[in-house]
Amino acid sequence: MEFATRAIHAGQEPDPVTGAIMTPIYQTSTYVQEAPGKNKGYAYARGKNPTRHALEQCIASLENAKFGLCFSSGMGASDAIIKLLNPGDEVIATHDLYGGAYRMFMQVFARMGIKFHFVDMSQADDIRHRISHKTRMIWVETPTNPMMNIIDIHACATIAREHKLILTVDNTFASPYLQNPLDLDADLVMHSVTKYLGGHSDVVMGAVCTNKEDLHQRLSFIHNSCGATPGPMDSFLVLRGIKTLPVRMERHCFNGKEIAHFLRSQPEVDKVYWPGFEDHKNHLIAKKQMRDFGGMISFTLKGNKLEDAFRVASHTKVFSLAESLGGVESLIGHPATMTHAAIPKAEREKSGVTDSLLRLSVGIEDIKDLTEDLKQALHSK
Ligand SMILES: *Cc1c(COP(=O)(O)O)cnc(C)c1O
């Protein structure tokens, strides 16, 4: 079946008892057994819950995966993935990584003896120089946050195969509608479901999908043993959110393209970062591995002044000033003082996060209101 049909139906059947078309919210912690050990496949809800199970099947289907697991947050999913490793193992990760992942790697897992190397992966071959006999995993995020760099997933997978490494791709920014890393030979794909999959800024959740049975078995064990599992109500909300993922993404992409070109035409704007521009550094890779370019855009202001960025960010009325992304409503953020505040100025500027950089999560409102809002904010005094 095609993507839009799977988004609505995958993993879901009418309720066998009542015929309810929506998967019920199985708000239960345990299940009654006929005799000790004799149950209907459900024993305790940390291990398995029918609402969550339907969602796991649905997300796996959208990622063309055999297996899927949902976690109580994107970080919960990332945490489980790193727990596949042992002390002494090494990970090579993209240098402009999601800030929360960087914090967890360096402040939690580095203490436990796992070593992380951060590499600019815009040329995938640069990964090779950092591989040692201790390397076990390559961690990719593409497009990256907030610089919208593009990493060649298939090239990374080729390197991972040669050295028997696990390739993990954080597919949060693209969503499965735009990009399917497992089809490009990645081993694991993870999501902050909080963003596009949930889509309505009302749930925090994570997911991991794979086609490798051994990896799935080990992740399932960690999932149940460590317990970062989401509840049935949140699973229901995401099942509902995913039904409109294709129509939402279509509008995110349309609005994103309009806004990217609009920003380029504004005299106050300096650089615009969006992978759909033909002069974007890795535009051809984006074109090859993504179906469209999404609704995430970053831009800088001429003169690169912090106060100008603050002025613009506090004058928008349709774009709300907030962290997060991927919801139906448009958001604006100032990475240097919000998502990337923990990174020293010299370091963040090296990767392009300058004082005037602003990041947009373009929502699905009417494009006329969005461009007019940005125009008045850019002209504000
Ligand atoms: C938000 C985000 C995460 C973390 O997910 P949570 O659901 O907030 O725990 C990981 N990766 C990326 C790219 C994100 O945007």
Written description of the protein model:
- The structure is a single chain.
- This protein is globular.
- Helix 4 links the parallel strand 2 (90-94) and strand 3.
- The protein is of the alpha/beta class and 381 residues long.
- Helix 2 (50-62) packs parallel to helix 8 (232-242), helix 3 (74-82) crosses helix 4 (99-109) and helix 11 crosses helix 13.
- The protein contains 13 helices and twelve strands.
- The strands form two sheets. It has a seven-stranded mixed beta sheet, sandwiched between helices. Strands 8-9-12-11-10 form a five-stranded mixed beta sheet.
- Pyridoxal-5'-phosphate binds at residues 73-75, 98, 100-101, 141, 145, 170, 172-173, 192, 194-195, 204, 206.
Share of helical residues: 25-40%
- In the CATH hierarchy, the third-tier topology of the largest domain is known as Aspartate Aminotransferase, domain 2
Unreliable stretches? none
Domain count, please report it.
2
CATH H level, superfamily name of the largest domain: Type I PLP-dependent aspartate aminotransferase-like (Major domain)
| Spatial order of strands in the largest sheet | 1-7-6-5-4-2-3
Question: What is this structure's SSE topology?
Answer:
Layout: H1 3-9, H2 50-62, E1 67-71, H3 74-82, E2 90-94, H4 99-109, E3 115-119, E4 135-141, H5 153-162, E5 166-170, H6 175-178, E6 188-192, E7 206-210, H7 213-226, H8 232-242, H9 245-264, E8 269-273, H10 283-289, E9 296-301, H11 306-315, E10 320-321, E11 331-333, H12 345-350, E12 358-361, H13 367-379
Parallel strand pairs: 2-3, 2-4, 4-5, 5-6, 10-11
Antiparallel strand pairs: 1-7, 6-7, 8-9, 9-12, 11-12
Residues 73-75, 98, 100-101, 141, 145, 170, 172-173, 192, 194-195, 204, 206 line the site of pyridoxal-5'-phosphate (PLP).
